Amino acid sequence: MNPKLTDYLNSVFTPYDGVKSVSELKDDLHTDLQERYRELKADGKDDETAFTMTIESIGDIEQTILEVANLSRSLERQVLTNFNGSNLAESDFAGVKAHKGQFKGSSLHGSDFSGADLTGSSFKASDVREANFDGANLTDCSLDALDLSNASFDKTILERTNFSKSGLDGAKFTGVRLIDVTLSMTDLRKTIFEGCRFEGVDFKYTDLTRQRFDGQTFIGVKFDKAALTEVSFRGATFNNVSFQPGFSLTNKYYRMIKTVIFDGATMDKLTYAALKGMGADVSKVTIR
């Protein structure tokens, strides 16, 4: 065995210590190079010539190692973020970083995601009841067909987050700034919103019957095609907010709009004019 070959391989592979597939490559290559060196010596080559020819025979080994390492790390990340079909009830994910995580068909009942960075993750058809998302980053996340009953969203980062066809009974959003969030085909009648700010949010085909949004802020929000019977916006702030029905204004929609409470709200002239034109009671609204 030539110790110079061993030292050479150690120096080349050092930056990738701990990457399993690279370690396996190193072991295989070490065996092959020692065999190649012995063959050259048997052919009458001196030590230095045999060593040089052995090293040259493997080509651009550093590029090969880099490619193997990158592939290995990519696969490791996929393994670490793919939790599809897993039983993870009451798991501790607090503070983890799991971008583009996959949670499809999983049991996450009571799991702790507080402070976690879940940017770009996808949750679908999973049991996420009583989960803790306090302070978590759910930017660009998709939450589709979930049971989120009694889940907690205290100061959660919600930007371009998509909630679709999910159960949110008893779920609580506290001190949350929702930016370009979509809440579609979702029953929000028993969801709790406290101290929230809604910017560019789209309540699409949602049921907000008797919901309480008192004192909260709405900017560029769309309540189009939403059920709004007896919703309360007491003391709320509105700017460029849309309350359009799905198609034409019908008597049913007129009757529904008249039940919405805007007492003490502050709104821009355009929002005010649109609501007044639909027959909403805006007699106790402050216009800016």
What is the element layout, followed by pairings?
Blueprint: H1 3-13, H2 20-42, H3 47-56, H4 61-81, E1 102-104, E2 122-124, E3 142-144, E4 152-154, E5 158-159, E6 162-164, E7 172-174, E8 177-179, E9 182-184, E10 192-194, E11 197-199, E12 202-204, E13 217-219, E14 237-239, H5 251-258, E15 266-267, H6 269-277, E16 286-287
Parallel strand pairs: 1-2, 2-3, 3-6, 4-7, 5-8, 6-9, 7-10, 8-11, 9-12, 11-13, 13-14, 14-15, 15-16
Radius of gyration, taken over Cα atoms and rounded to an integer in Å: 30 Å
Tell me about the largest β-sheet: 7 strands, parallel
Strand content: 15-25%
| Helix and strand pattern | HHHHEEEEEEEEEEEEEEHEHE
Briefly note the structural class of the backbone.
alpha/beta
